[in-house]
Amino acid sequence: MSEHRMHMAEFCKYQFPIHTEGVAWSGRLRYLQNCESASIVHQPLQHHAHYYDLLVAEGPEQNYIAVRNDWADLEEKVAFYRQNPAAARRVARNSARTFRDRYLTPAAEACYWRRMIREWAAVQAWKPERYVDVMQADGSVWKKQRGVDWEVFAAVDPHYPLDFPGYEGSREKEKEDGGKKDGGGKKGGKKGAES
């Protein structure tokens, strides 16, 4: 079975990659649309993603090849586009221009998620507290930020350690574990020596 597996980037070598859905939403269409290929997508799709309304099945802005849900017209559609390579190239270029170069860029994705989170926050019944009071040894109280800004979280910089409660790599977690990255447990010794 493993000899038939392909990395998503390998799909870009094909003129007509096929998007299929299973029993759950399939996230692979977004990756197929990052190729300059004429993706074949069955209709109707059972699940929905935020960019599916941008799929155009026909006309000058067509950006994918629609086939029936039972795939009965697949052979006919592929034959048409193989006999009309200019039409296939137009679909592929429209797809890349619409998705890869505009709506599925990292910046566009971050914009979508940021707005979704802000809109969600606007309708929730409670407002999270951004800061928590931390008592210092000298009796003063400092404000400590809870969590991290969206931009820091979404674009993780490996040189900037995230530091918030519950995050696996946080400095706070290291402190709780005695400053050891191995979880603070004893190393070496005889088997069963730890309690």
TrEMBL record:
The protein's name in its UniProt record: KDEL motif-containing protein 2
Domain of life: Eukaryota
Species classification: Eukaryota, Fungi, Dikarya, Ascomycota, Pezizomycotina
The Glycosyl transferase CAP10 domain, residue ranges: 5-134
Basic and acidic residues bias: start-end ranges: 169-195
Residue ranges, annotated region (Disordered): 159-195
